[in-house]
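Late entry, evening session. Most of the bench is empty. Finally got around to the prediction I had been postponing all week. Sequence below, unchanged from the version circulated by S.P.
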Amino acid sequence: MRACERELTPSPSSLSRPLGPLPLTRPPADHKGANFLLHLERVVGGVDVFNPYQKDYISTFAGKAISTQDWEEHFWAYWGRYPEKERALREQVDFEVRHTHSLALSSSRRA
């Protein structure tokens, strides 16, 4: 039996245990992404300002697999149409740290 098959084959003892949530040692990635989007939304001025970007993102990438670079190019192209919002994003969000660490929101850079 290969290692991957062993992991997928339940042992008799595991079948008698009640099923329940697994303990988490760190936040799930989708929570980090949701928190990051919320932070971006707040930086640009709230949901009414951010929702048009989300709609544009969905219409551009629906049904496609994209890279971080694809997302960033689209993100900055969109917000580049609104210089004051782009400036706020560049000043208040440390995108470089976000790539090298799990998720870093630059709250210390707020005015």
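Two things to note before I forget:
The CA atoms of residues 10 and 95 lie 42 Å apart.
The helical segments are 3-8, 12-16, 29-44, 47-61, 68-79, 83-92, 95-100.
Will write this up properly tomorrow.
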